[in-house]
Design brief:
Blueprint: H1 8-19, H2 22-28, E1 32-33, E2 37-39, E3 45-47, E4 53-60, E5 62-72, E6 80-83, E7 90-91, E8 95-98, E9 104-107, E10 113-116, E11 126-129, E12 135-138, E13 144-147, E14 155-156, E15 160-163, E16 167-171, E17 179-186, E18 192-198, E19 203-210, E20 219-222, E21 228-231, E22 237-239, E23 251-257, E24 263-269, E25 284-289, H3 293-296, E26 311-314, E27 320-323, E28 328-330, E29 340-342, E30 362-368, E31 370-371, E32 376-380, H4 385-393, E33 400-403, E34 408-411, E35 418-420, E36 426-432, H5 447-463, H6 468-500, E37 505-506, H7 509-515, E38 522-526, E39 529-535, E40 543-549, H8 557-568, E41 578-584, E42 587-593, H9 600-604, H10 612-632, E43 647-649, E44 655-657, H11 697-712, H12 729-738, H13 750-754, H14 756-769, H15 780-788
Parallel strand pairs: 26-35, 37-41
Antiparallel strand pairs: 1-11, 2-8, 3-4, 4-5, 5-6, 5-7, 8-9, 9-10, 11-12, 12-13, 14-23, 15-20, 16-17, 17-18, 18-19, 20-21, 21-22, 23-24, 24-25, 26-27, 28-29, 30-36, 31-35, 32-34, 33-34, 33-36, 38-39, 39-40, 40-42, 41-42, 43-44
């Protein structure tokens, strides 16, 4: 018999093994070697030995947006159990690499490092994705230097142990992996607690569920059998999962704090089979807490399980759903949990003057078994329903009255903790009399047009009673009259949408006239034109801001659409979203989402000073938005006019940058400064006044000025200031820094004065941004890291006083 060595197949097999990539061999036995990497372009992943879990990039929402995550690889839904960089998405071309230095690093498509696994116990020499779903970095002594189990997001898995002080944070929505408003905290007193939070400040509202346990050195354990329990050092055990749990041998298990605030344990059959009847193809709930999230949250702060002005109801699967009362619509039709807003102008408390239109008339419409128990302004008892209605109608502050048969509770906006109740409770909602659409007409193609066509179609059966020939002629005429204009209009709009290739809506000028009620309510004006408030009364019902662009660069149709398309593709929580546009004749209008809390200028320079914590969060938001424009979106955008008037605040006071990307569309003489310049005096970098190239560092300079305004709650220039030496904020701030008198910048602000280290860091960052030489200014990415304390801020040199010479 010939030996194996003599067999030609042996040599072929040996050759194949020698040629097989070492990195692939490393992954096949579960180990990931130094230098290994994954990118969004190669569609590969690091997989556990069993194949149950995978780590890599997975597309989310858009083919060009990806999440670095761990997921169940054999489940068709590819259910994500952990994500790096807490849900922040990256663009196509990003990469994760286990570097030769032993660091696991995520880099964006520009090659910039945006997340690193912070290792301990020396640098890593290898990595592995384990069959438990745990991503582990090992050192040369086989010790763990970092593991994903120590940095849980919203999910825990069997064999995972949580120590006291650990927190799980929900997602923002089912498909948005950023941190949401619910937290599960295993507190240092041994109690496991569910909270709602204020995302802006991370302030915890009252708990809405608790394990009611106490102890020291406790652990929360998700064991191999699928049970979750709390174990204390004295040996006592508090089971969270009660009853029989299916085997982890036959089922995948996970426990997730879902975006709706419920902590649920899920199971899914392995290998597509199970030892019991399987009802569907999705994950099944084994147990959950609390049992009814709609009733569990009763805090007087916050919106409750659903957003403000909405109400919560459990569906057939015991999951919460959020609904709007009559004549209200969702803030975001894609996220019903974000709350609702009225589709009408609420009743005014101002008396009608002579020559003015009388106050709009309102009526009460009924919503049975519904209540908002945390928004009371008045209570009446005993009283009947008619009296309750009249009391609310006569009160301009009253938006809803709750009547339970003997009591009447007046409610004012915003309504919170809305829910369905049993018994005789009914909500009486104040809405305009008659058709609510009379104040805000439907845009073309909305329900009004459908109603008109439906009325015409109903005439057809009546016509059928006359002669057949006449009926046919009339039928043809009706079809031509009704459907030909609609078809013509449809054809007219289709090329616009196809050429854009995105979700921007193309409006006619007439539509925007109707939306803004004849451009009646002006929100403000600036370098790019005038902004008006409007409302879309279609299915979305959103308030919008309509900007009429004035004296634009004389560019052709193709260039205008290309620029607007680029702006429309940009999505970031700190940027105002473009919804649509109008390009008709000489008219150029842009339609943006409406920011209910106005501009940062009004917020900062008003009669009352915002809290220090609010101001720091706003500074973070602006910095992140600019960093995204400069480095993270597909095409770099330089704003050229960063100032408080161009920073808007949404309903949660989150900073949103507006007017980005419009500099190319603006004629040189339509700025607020000298011809050929872009920007506003006081915020402009020195290079604008010199024969120097303009880069993203002009925005960094403007941000430095803005940051000082946020810190001090005063305008950059106050020429009428009592002390003229303090008239120029940038000069005064540096003097205070140099003389170690930073308390003068926040005089009377105890919260800021007590946070002296952050105050000093913010001022130092601002001084770095204000350097005359652009190359000395940090990038906005580094500015963000310095503000957040992730990067040390070195001592800044003295900035130039050039700013003083341009006033």
């Amino acid at each position: 018999m010939a030996s194996a060595i003599d067999n030609p197949l042996f040599f072929l097999l040996l050759l194949l093994l020698l040629l097989f990539p070492l990195s692939t061999m490393a992954q096949s036995n579960g180990s990931i070697s130094l230098g290994s990497s994954l990118s969004t372009s190669d569609k590969s992943s690091w997989v556990s030995l069993s194949g149950d879990f995978a780590f890599g990039f997975t597309p989310v929402a858009d083919k060009n947006l990806f999440l670095l995550a761990i997921w169940f690889d054999k489940v068709p839904e590819k259910t994500i159990v952990w994500s790096a960089h807490r849900g922040n998405l990256v663009l196509y071309g990003s990469k994760v690499e286990l570097k030769s230095s032993g660091q696991l690093v995520l880099s964006n498509n520009q090659g910039q490092e945006i997340w690193t696994a912070q290792v301990t116990n020396g640098s890593a020499t290898s990595a592995a994705i384990l069959d438990t779903g745990n991503l582990v970095l090992w050192n040369s002594n086989s010790g763990i230097t970092w593991q994903s189990f120590d940095h849980s997001t919203d999910t825990i898995l069997p064999l995972q142990i949580l120590d006291m002080g650990t927190t799980l944070s929900s997602r923002e929505t089912e498909t948005n992996y950023s941190s949401g408003k619910f937290e599960l905290r295993f507190q240092t007193d041994g109690n496991l607690v569910l909270y709602t939070t204020n995302l802006l400040t991370n302030y915890l509202y009252n708990a809405y569920w608790s394990s009611n346990t106490a102890g020291t050195d406790s652990q929360m354990i998700f064991n191999q059998s699928g049970y979750i329990y709390l174990r204390q050092t004295n040996g006592s055990v508090h089971n969270l999962t009660l009853g029989n749990i299916v085997s982890t041998r036959d089922f995948y298990h996970r426990a997730t704090l879902d975006f709706d605030g419920v902590f649920r344990q899920y199971i899914y059959p392995k290998n597509g089979s199970s030892n019991r009847n399987w009802a569907g193809e999705s994950w099944s709930i084994e147990w959950s807490v609390p049992s009814d999230i709609c009733w569990a949250i009763t805090d007087s702060f916050g919106s409750g399980a659903c957003g403000f002005n909405s109400y919560c109801r459990l569906d057939d699967t015991l999951r919460p759903s959020c609904f709007c009362p009559p004549n209200y619509s969702y803030f975001d039709s894609r996220n019903p949990f974000k709350g609702c807003k009225p589709d009408f102008v609420p009743q005014s408390c101002e008396p009608a003057g002579s020559g003015e239109e009388p106050r709009p008339q309102f009526r009460m419409t009924e919503l049975p078994n519904t209540n908002w128990p945390m928004s009371d302004s008045e209570r009446y008892n005993p009283i009947n329903e008619d009296q309750c209605r009249e009391l609310c109608l006569d009160d301009c502050f009253c938006a809803v009255a709750i009547f339970n048969g003997v009591d009447c509770f007046k409610k004012k906006l915003p309504l919170s903790n809305g829910r369905i109740e049993t018994g005789t409770t009914k909500a009486l909602i104040k809405v305009p009399r008659g058709n609510s659409t009379s104040q805000f007409p439907f845009p073309s193609g909305s329900n009004r047009g459908k109603s008109d066509r439906g009325t015409l179609i109903l005439i057809i059966p009546t016509l059928l009673g006359s002669s057949v020939f006449l009926n046919l002629l009339l039928l043809v005429a009706i079809l031509v009259v009704v459907f030909f204009p609609y078809h013509k209009k449809l054809l007219k709009h289709q090329p616009e949408q196809i050429s854009l290739g995105m979700n921007l809506r193309s409006f006619t000028y007439k539509e925007l006239e109707e939306v803004t009620d004849g451009f009646k309510q002006e929100l403000g004006s600036g370098a790019f034109g005038t902004v008006y408030k409007g409302i879309l009364t279609s299915s979305t019902g959103n308030f919008v801001a309509v900007k009429k662009l004035e004296k634009l660069v004389d560019e052709g149709d193709k260039e205008f659409k290309a620029e607007i398309t680029a702006i429309g593709r940009i999505h970031h929580k700190n940027l105002v979203q473009l919804l649509g546009f109008c390009y008709e004749g000489s008219q150029r209008l842009l339609v943006y989402e409406f920011m209910s809390n106005g501009s940062l200028a009004s917020f900062l320079f008003g009669s009352s000073r915002p809290s220090w914590n609010q101001r720091t969060q706003i500074a973070f938001g602006v910095a992140r938005g600019l960093a995204y424009l400069h480095d993270e979106c597909g095409k770099q955008i330089i704003h050229c006019d960063i100032k408080p008037q161009n920073i808007l605040l949404d309903c949660n006071f989150i900073a949103r940058i507006s007017d980005f990307g419009l500099a190319k569309l603006l004629q040189a003489d339509q700025t607020r400064t000298n011809s050929g310049l872009r920007g506003t005096r006081g915020y402009m970098a020195p290079e604008w006044f010199r024969n120097m190239s303009i880069t993203a560092k002009v925005d960094v300079y403007s941000f430095g000025v803005l940051l000082l305004e946020i810190i001090c709650c005063r305008k950059n220039v106050e020429l009428g200031h009592d002390d003229m030496e303090n008239a120029i904020l940038t000069d005064w701030a540096y003097d205070c820094y140099r003389e170690r008198k930073l308390n003068l910048l926040v005089e009377g602000d105890e919260e800021a004065s007590s946070d002296i280290r952050r105050l000093e860091r913010f001022v130092m960052v601002a001084i770095w941004c204000l350097q005359e030489e652009p190359s000395l200014r940090p990038s906005m990415k580094k500015v963000t890291q310095m503000l957040e304390g992730a990067v040390e801020v070195s001592l800044p040199p003295e900035p130039s006083s050039f700013i003083s010479s341009i006033f």
